[in-house]
Design brief:
mainly alpha; single chain; 2 helices
Length: about 70
């Protein structure tokens, strides 16, 4: 007994799987795009950097005054 129908069955099942996957994506659609608040986060990072710089400068000046 030869398998005449096997290639046809494999092709049909492959096409069916592709169709189901693509139709599922078409129903769901792309996720909604949300904008990221860059300004708020950037301001916090700049303030933290400035505070760290001021602290380091203060410690350096304090250490220099103790050595005198």
């Amino acid at each position: 007994m030869k398998n005449y129908y096997l290639p046809s069955v494999l092709k049909a099942s492959g096409l069916l799987i592709c169709f189901v996957c693509l139709s599922t994506l078409a129903i769901a659609g792309p996720p909604p795009a949300e904008s990221a608040p860059i300004d708020g986060g950037l301001s916090v990072l700049l303030a933290a950097g400035a505070a760290a710089g001021v602290r380091k400068a203060y410690q350096k000046i304090k250490k220099a005054n103790q050595l005198k």
